[in-house]
Amino acid sequence: MRILITNDDGINAPGLKTLEAIATEIAGPNGEVWVVAPAFEQSGVAHCISYAHPTMISELAERRWAAEGSPADCVLAGLHDILPERPDLLLSGVNRGNNAGENVMYSGTIGGAMEGALQGVPSIAMSQFFGPGNARLDDPFESAAMHGAGVVRKLLDHAPWDGSADYSLFYNVNFPPLPASKTGDITVTRQGRRPTAGFGIEGQISPTGRRFLWVRGSEQSVETGEGTDVSANLAGAISVTPMRADLTADDRLEAVERALA
């Protein structure tokens, strides 16, 4: 099996090492794992592509490349310039921190998997929730490292992929903020939303008198309701959420049509 991997934390991120190990196990002894990841951290860029300027890429080692661009840029580079043949699978992550709830909308990890799906490649995003239960472990990615390959295998062997659909399915996987030994089973969830304020802005004056704005997040360990990704993770489960890049509010089409008739 040929696997392309990327992330949004950057080519030197510890979560990428975890993902490389997962991909190597899935690919098998005769497989190939190709890394095309951002040269610098790209957290929060979502599905951004560098449409208005070129992207410099550098070969760091065999089957290992860094691109000065977004995760979606990396996927495009891998598929259309670097890999000799199309991959059988794309994995994005393992992100440092959860990509559940409203975080999905901002995540470059999700953006990489979304671009893979748009390009017709089976794609899975993987993220590690951080919290008091794992942040001080020798390996805070322990849950993803121990259970990641098993989750990927189950998705490949049993989950639907809808490869012929206009917007193919991809999967968003979040591992709970716990050690591997305390991690629960896989739970299929919908995307939740924390009832907190989400992202905000804090201003600060620099020593030179100039004003800068910092983006601030909000509390992550907040329940989002039964059947949702965040709540499943906080309960110790691995959340798996099927997703598409189609943002249409299908449940409101008829109401809008009636309103505008």
Automatic annotation (TrEMBL):
Reactions catalysed, as given in the entry: a ribonucleoside 5'-phosphate + H2O = a ribonucleoside + phosphate
Keywords: Cytoplasm, Hydrolase, Metal-binding, Nucleotide-binding
Name of a matching Pfam family: SurE
Coiled-coil spans in chain: none
Residues holding a divalent metal cation: D8, D9, S43, N95
Record-annotated Survival protein SurE-like phosphatase/nucleotidase domain positions: 3-194
Cofactor(s) needed by this chain: a divalent metal cation
EC number(s) stated in the UniProt entry for this protein: 3.1.3.5
Cofactor remark from the record: Binds 1 divalent metal cation per subunit.
Compartments where located: Cytoplasm
InterPro entries assigned: SurE, SurE-like_Pase/nucleotidase, SurE-like_sf
Function: Nucleotidase that shows phosphatase activity on nucleoside 5'-monophosphates.
UniProt record similarity statement: Belongs to the SurE nucleotidase family.
Name of the molecule in the record: 5'-nucleotidase SurE
Organism for this UniProt entry: Celeribacter arenosi
Gene responsible for this protein: surE
